[in-house]
Each structure stands twice: as C-alpha cells, then as structure tokens.
Amino acid sequence: MSASDPATADTARPATPSAAQERASGWRTIRRVAPYLWPADKPWARRRVVLAIIALVMAKLVAVATPFFYKAAVDALAGEGAAWMLAVGAVGLTVAYGVARLLEIGFQELRNVLFTRVGQRALRQLALETFGHIHRLSLRYHITRKTGGLSRIIERGVKGVDFLLRFLLFSIFPLFLQLLMIAVIFFLLFDVWYLAAVVVTISLYVWFTFRITEWRVKQRRIMNQQDTDANQKAIDSLLNFETVKYFNAEAMEARRYDGAMEKYEEAAVTTNYSLAFLNFGQSLIITTGLVVVMVLAALGVQRGALSVGDFVMVNAYMIQITMPLNFLGTVYREIRQALVDMAEMFDLLDQPPDVRDAAGAGALEVTRGEVVFDEVAFGYDPARPILRGIDLRVAGGETVAIVGPSGSGKSTIGRLLFRFYDVTGGAIRIDGQDVRDVTQSSLHAAIGVVPQDTVLFNDTIAYNIAYGREGATQAEIEAAARAARIHDFIQSLPEGYDTAVGERGLKLSGGEKQRVGIARTLLKNPPVLLLDEATSALDTQTEQSIQESLRAMGQGRTVLTIAHRLSTVVDADRIIVLEDGRIVEEGTHDALLARRGRYAQMWARQSVEEA
Fold it and tell me: Do 333 and 391 lie in a common domain?
C-alpha cells in the first residue's frame, strides 16, 4: 500500500535549521498546542477527550480480538479447535467475527463524534487568536509584510493544528498500542521468532521512514519557498491590476509568475521522485516481514504445531500490522509537515507588537480636546531622524494645519498622534494625558481620521458608513451621509445604501469614496479629528466641495489638518510650517504671507503651478 503525499506545505524559512533545532521547535509547537487539546477552562472539553480516548482503546482491544474469531471459524470448518469452537459452529463464529468488526468501527466513530467539538473549538480559538494578533501588530510590521505569504502561513498553520489534534492523539498513540498488543500475542501464542520477525520489520520500517522523510522535508521546504513566492507574485500582480494595465505589463507579469512556477515545478518533481522511493522501500520492508512470518506459520502447520486457523490468524495479525505501518509513514510525514507549518504560525504569534499598552493603562478621558506635542523626536530608523524636537499646542476646538515639503515629517506627526508608533523622545499629550499611558483602544476611539485615500471594504455603502460606530441604526447612517453631503447621491443609485462598492471601493469615484469616509468618521463622532491630506488626491472642483464637508465636520472639534495643497488650509486658526523635522514658521495664513518667509515661498510656487 503506497502512502500519499500531503498537499499542503510550509513556507520556507530564511535559514535551514539543524535537526536539533527542528526537534526543539517541534516539541515547542506541541507544547503550544496542548492547551487547545486540554483546555483548563472547559471541563466539558476535557471530559470529551477522556471519553474519546476510552473509545479509542476499546476499538483497539476489539480489533486485536477479532482475528481470534476468524481463527476459530476456520478451525471449526476444518473440524479442529477447542470443544467450544465446535459447539458454537462456524456460522456462529463468523457472525461473532462480523459483530467484532462492527464494534471496532462503532468505537472509532464514537471517538470521532466525541472529539469533533473539541477539535473545532480549538481551531476556532486559534484562528481568532491569530487574526486578533495580526491586527495588534504595529504599522511597521504591516508596511513590510507580504499579504500573500502571510495568508498562506495562517491557512497552513490552522490546517496543521487541525491535523495534529486529530492524528497525534488518535493515530500515533493507538498505532503503537495496537502494535504492542500484537507483539505480545505473537510472543505468548507462538514463539520468540515470530516476535523477533515483527520487531525487526517494525524497527526497519520506522527507521527507513523517518530517515527518508527527514530528507524529504528539506526538499519540501525548497518547494514551499517557491510555492509561496509564486503565490505572492500572483496576489501582488492582481492587487496592482490597474498598474499592470497602465504599463502594458501583462506579458512581463506572466513571465515573472512562470519563472516562479518553473522553480516550483523542479522542486515538486524532486519531491515526487523521493516519494516514489519512499513508498517502494516501505513496501519492500513490509512485504519481506510478512513473507518471513507467514513462512514460519506455514512450517508450523506442516509440523502439526499449528492449525490452519492459526495460520489464518497470523495472516490477519500481519495485515493489522502492515496497514497501520503504511499509515505511520503518511501520518509521520503529515505530522512532521504540520509541525513545520504550525511553527511558522506560532512564530507569527510570537512576533511582538512595537506598540503596547502600558501596565495598568487606563482609558483616555477627553474633556477639552487639547493636544500637546512636547519636544517630540522620532525616526523610523535611529540613524535617520524624522522629527527633531517638535513643540506644538493645539487648544480644544482649534483647527491647526501642518504644511511643509515632502519628507518634512507631516504625516509622521499624524501617525504618532494615533500611536501607530511611539515617540523616541519627548511626549504627546491629550488633555494632559500621555498617549503612552492610556489604552490604545480608548485613544483610537477619541481620534477620527480622514486619510488621503479612503479605502472601503468590499461591501455595501451602508456597511462602510456604519463601520464608524458598531451598532449604528439606519437613521444614524443616513444622518451621517447627509452631513457628508452624499445622501442624495446614494439615494439616486438603484440599490441605494445596499449598493456594493467593490474591492477597496473601486466602484466609486475618488470624491464619492472620500465622502463615504467623511460620513464614517462623522458617525464615529470623535472629539479630535485628523485630516491627513484628505483632498490632495482629488481634482480642484471636487476638492472644494469636499472642503465644505470637512469644515462642517470640524465644528466643535480639535482638528489637525496635514496638507500639501496650501489652498485647503487658508481658513485654519493656525498654520505650522515644517521643514527637515522642525517647526520653522507658525501663524495664520495672512500673517505668514506678510512674513515673506518659507510659507510665502510655498504659496507663491503653488499659485503659479495652479495658474
């Protein structure tokens, strides 16, 4: 019987770990999975696991006893055997044999029924933990991640846990239990040579399977790397569909994808060759062991030491041995692969977020909405500082615009306020509370952000607006849409608020997406508002209409506007000019123009460009 090769595989790691490192990683992974299998807070789950193990042991006891009925039926037909065999008769013994087979299957299915809910709950819990952890990881991680590779890691890791939960407990343990029972029976009912033949066969099979499988895992790792690379290239190309079209690069993308698939093809061929070698070697060892034991039994029958029923029983037990041994080959490879898959996922879970809530952090309490930057310094790379001692106070209800050339640190200020990153020097305070001392959840709830490019979920307009506040009613959604001046447009659509916006909102224009984003933020109703170049990607006419909505949204709120186009911030209470990470000018629009400094130069240049 040939073992099949698993379809799923793990992403390759940057460096090939040693055998000792892999064993240590495997045990670490098993220890991580154990709490899901034996949850301390769920007594019902532990009871189900215990009952499932009992059902498993009963199934193996019945399985080992079944060949006795087979032997007895054959001896009864031959007129041999004990008196009770002859009394029961061949028909009765055959029926007993059938009942035993049925009981074995029944206990196995009972085991599955008992364990299914435990296993599915574990998968759900682990998937939720992974999903939540990924959202807790910092922006620094998400900027550098590869979506395609990440999705593969999660998918294969969860499947690996599913396999390990089912097979480690219900395949490896019962397999060795059954082999031990059969070895004891051979020793007690026959002689030591039968036991020796079985032990040698099993030992050679296990040694050969493990050695070749370890080699194959290295081959699979190469194949997995190419698989992930090809998948990443495909997803990256599809996510940038419009760019591919703009540059007429379909053929180039196809060549890149085919190049990755070619490497995968070579690795897959080598892996399949090694599988064929493994299957043939396993069959050779098992068949040799089976022939040796059956020859011993045949010689025993010829000498009169064994009955024909004994010969049949020996054959039945050898079949019971060979089937699980073939199964061992497949299960070991699957478990080995599952451990690698899961290790990658647990490595992801062990990835620490750069930004964490401080111990004992409380909720942010916003009374006035005052925002203070106190000597704030920051750099994405310690060797390349972005902000250099920013001192800025924004009073509650005040609108402050931050302008400056590209690379001056404007958007970085917004990211630090929202605490995507922690400052490397100084502090940011809201109403006197350091943002590092409050929970991220309460901080995020207090700040509304309208980014340069509003990205929408592939759902309805109503869903995307309601995303601003969970549990919002339809009336509240429509009120937010009216305030963002998009209600009439939505009503004009055939499906109204139930209109699907498409992937990333591509079915809507830039201005329509921005208005949905504004409505979403209005529904959130935050005391502090951050406008991060909210209209810079729009045409002038659309920008002017959106600006009216933004000004209305800022009423009664503290507003920080990060802008590239100066015409959008002339009405701000104050304008801050950043250059090289420092505040170089500050004042109203008219005051800054009168100063004839950096802001006046920027205004003159943009006026010429617009003219």
Answer: no
Residue 358, in any domain of the structure: no
Instruction: Say which DSSP state 598 is in.
Output: H
Angstrom distance (rounded) from CA 26 to CA 400: 55
Q: Which of 601, 533, 531, 603 is nearest to 567 (CA)?
A: 603
Counting the structural domains of the chain, the total is 2
Whole-model pTM above 0.85?
A: no
Closest C-alpha to 518, from 554, 493, 488, 472: 554
What would the two tokens of residue 562 be? 């990060």
27: left (phi over 0), alpha (psi -120 to 50) or beta: alpha
Distance CA 478, CA 495 (A): 14
Question: 72 and 131, same structural domain?
Answer: yes
The answer to whether residue 482 sits within a structural domain is: no
Same domain, 425 and 339: no
pLDDT at 142: 62
What is the CA angle 389-394-400, rounded to 5? Answer: 95
What's the 3-state SS for 328-376? Answer: HHHHHHHHHHHHHHHHHHHHHHCCCCCCCCCCCCECCCCCCCCEEEEEE
- Nearest one of 465, 455, 267, 438 to 359, comparing CA atoms: 438
pLDDT in tens, 315-362: 888 888 777 777 666 677 677 777 777 777 777 777 777 778 888 888
- pLDDT over 80 (residue 293): yes
- With both helix axes pointing from N to C terminus, report the angle between 83-136 and 43-77 in degrees, rounded to the nearest 10: 150
The more confident residue out of 365 and 8 is 365
CA dist 401 and 575 (Å) reads: 5
- Same domain flag for 392 and 537: yes
pLDDT in tens, 395-428: 999 999 999 888 888 888 988 998 888 899 999 9
Does one domain contain both 312 and 413? no
86 vs 76: CA distance, rounded Å: 5
Percent above pLDDT 70 for the chain: 85
Q: 238: domain range?
A: 27-349
pLDDT in tens, 148-184: 556 667 777 777 777 776 676 667 777 778 888 888 8
Instruction: Looking at the structure, tell me whether residues 345 and 398 fall in a common domain.
Output: no
> Is the residue at 356 inside a domain?
no
Instruction: Quote the CA–CA distance of 208 and 284 in Å, as a whole number.
Output: 11
182 with 320, same domain?
yes
Q: Are residues 606 and 552 in the same domain?
A: yes
Residue 480, in any domain of the structure: no
**445 CB contacts (<8 Å, ≥6 apart)?**
364, 524, 526
